[in-house]
Amino acid sequence: MNSAEQASHAEHVSAEVVVELESCATQDAHAVFSALRTAFASDRAADDVPEEMAGAGPTVWTSTIDVSEHKAEAEPRRLTGPVLVSLQGGYWAVDRLCKGLEPAFTVHILGMAAGDQEKEVELRLESR
């Protein structure tokens, strides 16, 4: 698909992906969101560092990523351990976001739930 076809395709299909990280270290959440911001537009500012929230349940960090434009390739990032990621969005957008994570992390697809217009993908990210 050339860039004109991608732009046309993006106009008809949502280019946003909701990304959720759960039960990981704050520095790992920051590493994932930083890699995503390098590659795509994000609703998280560069100085928005995830923080642990007090309480009984696990902390879940969420961001919405716009994959309509690939800005740059993310450099490999170090993680303290595997990070579980949930992605939800249109088929094209989720696939593009997964590809955008590959330069920064080793990406393992754990599962997928497919709907009519959207899909949800569960990933495990590890350091390269």
Could you please describe the fold and organization of this structure?
The protein has 128 residues and is α+β, with helices and mostly antiparallel strands. It is globular. The chain has a six-stranded antiparallel sheet with strand order 2-3-1-4-6-5. The protein is built from three helices and six strands. The model has no long low-confidence stretch (mean pLDDT 88). A hairpin with a 3-residue loop joins strand 5 and strand 6.
How many β-strand stretches? 6
| Poorly predicted residue ranges | none
Mean pLDDT: 88
Please give the alpha-carbon distance between the first and last residues.
28 Å
- Count of separate DSSP helical elements: 3
- Assess the beta-strand content as a share of residues: 25-35%
In short:
The chain is α+β, with helices and mostly antiparallel strands and 128 residues long. The chain contains three helices and six strands.
Question: What is the element layout, followed by pairings?
Answer:
Layout: H1 3-12, E1 16-22, H2 26-39, E2 41-42, E3 60-66, E4 83-90, H3 91-101, E5 105-114, E6 118-127
Antiparallel strand pairs: 1-3, 1-4, 2-3, 4-6, 5-6
